[in-house]
Amino acid sequence: MPVPSSVPAEGPADRPPTGPGAPPRWLDAGEQRTWRAFLEATRIFFEQIEGQLQRDAAMPHGYYEILVRLSEAPNRSLRMSELADRLLSSRSRLSHAVSRLENAGWVRRESAAGDRRGWLAVLTDDGFAALAAAAPGHVEAVRTHLFDKLTPDQVRALHEISEAIARER
Amino acid sequence: MPVPSSVPAEGPADRPPTGPGAPPRWLDAGEQRTWRAFLEATRIFFEQIEGQLQRDAAMPHGYYEILVRLSEAPNRSLRMSELADRLLSSRSRLSHAVSRLENAGWVRRESAAGDRRGWLAVLTDDGFAALAAAAPGHVEAVRTHLFDKLTPDQVRALHEISEAIARER
DNA sequence: CACAGTTAGTTGAGTGTTCAACCACAAACG
DNA sequence: CGTTTGTGGTTGAACACTCAACTAACTGTG
C-alpha cells in the first residue's frame, strides 16, 4: 500500500483549511501520473546530458555552465558572487567548482579591483578552447534529447511552464 | 562572447547533413531562452523538493522514492534489480542507498528464494512510519512548487511533454 | 572613529553518486 | 558435464554537493 496512493478520507469538518494541522492535499491519480512522468523525464534527460558531457568532454554539466557564463561576460570574467547568482548556485558550490576548474587550467582567480574581499573568476584560453570543443556535442545532445522530441507547440508550452515554475523564488 | 551564442555561418555546402563532421545545429535565440528557462525551473524546483525533505524528514528525495516503491509492492519488498529498474537507478546507487537505509533501520535485506544471487529489499515498520511521517510535507511541497503554479492546461501539457521526453530511452 | 552588523568568499566534514573492478551464482552451449 | 558467458549485486575510490563554521573586509550608525 503506497502512502499517498489516493485521496484519503477527509478529517473532521472543523479543521482549518490550511496550515500544519490540515489534512494533506494528496495527489489524485492523474496528478500522480503527471508527477511520476515528470520525474522520469527529468531523470532520463539529465542523465543523457550529464553522460554525454562527462564522456566526451570530461566535465559535469555544472562546470560547462560556469564556462559558458564566463565566456559571455566582458573580459570573460565575473565576480564570484555575480557568477553564483546567475547560475543559481551556492557560493560554496561555486567556490569548490572554481577551485577544480583552476586546477584544470580552465579558469584563473584574480582579485577584484576596489574590493579587497572580492575575486574574479577569469576564463583562460585553455578554458575557452575546452568549452569550444565541448559545445557542439552538448548542443547536439540538448537537441536530440529535448527539442527533437517535442512539437513547436510543446516547446512553447515548456517555455511558459518553466517560467511559471521559476516565478517567485 | 558565448560559444553557442547564435546560428553560425554555414560550412561548405557539400558537407554531410548529419554525423560528426556536420556543422553543429546551434540553438536559435528562442530555443536558447527556452533551454535556460527549463534549466532554471528544474534547478529551483528540485532544490525546493530536496530541501523540504532534507529539513523535515532528514532524507534525500531519492531515498524517499525507494521507500515509496517498497511501500507499494506486495509484502513491501522488491528484488534489488527490480527496484533499481523501477527507479531508473543504477544498481550501484541503489546498493549504496539501501545500505544506508538499512543502517537507519528503515529497510532490511532478505535473500531471495530460488536464486541465491538475489536479494530483496524489505521496508520495515520503522521505514513505513518514516515514510508516512514524511509524505504530507513532501506532497504539500510538490503541490506548492509545481501544481499550484500551473493551470490545468499546463499540467496536461507537462504530462505530455514529459512522456515525449522519456519516450525511447 | 569605534564597533556592530553585513557581505565576499573559503574551508572541511559528511553525504551521495559514479565508475570500474570484482565475486558468486545461473544459464547456455558444445 | 565442464566451460564459457551472462546476471545479480557489492565494493572502494574519486568526485561533487551541502551545511555550518570561519576569516577578512566593507558599511552604517551613533
Please characterize this protein's 3D structure.
2 copies of one chain form a homodimer. Chain A has 6 helices and 3 strands. Chain A is mostly helical and 169 residues long. In chain A, helix 1 packs antiparallel against helix 5 (125-145) and helix 2 crosses helix 5. The two termini of chain A are 35 Å apart. The interface between A and B is large, with 58 and 58 residues. Chain A binds a DNA duplex (30 and 30 nucleotides) through helix 3 and helix 4.
Shape of chain A: globular
In CATH, the homologous superfamily of chain A goes by the name Winged helix-like DNA-binding domain superfamily/Winged helix DNA-binding domain
* Helix content, binned percent of chain A: 55-70%
Query: Helices and strands of chain A: which structural class?
Result: mainly alpha
- By oligomeric state, this entry counts as homodimer
Beginning-to-end CA distance, first to last residue of chain A = 35 Å
The CATH architecture designation of chain A is Orthogonal Bundle
Tally the structural domains of chain A. Answer: 1
Topology-level CATH name of chain A = Arc Repressor Mutant, subunit A
Strand line-up across the major sheet of chain A: 1-3-2
Strand content of chain A: 5-15%
Mean pLDDT of chain A: 91
Mind summarizing the main beta sheet of chain A?
Answer: 3 strands, antiparallel
- Give the low-pLDDT segments of chain A: 5-12
Rg over alpha carbons of chain A? 22 Å
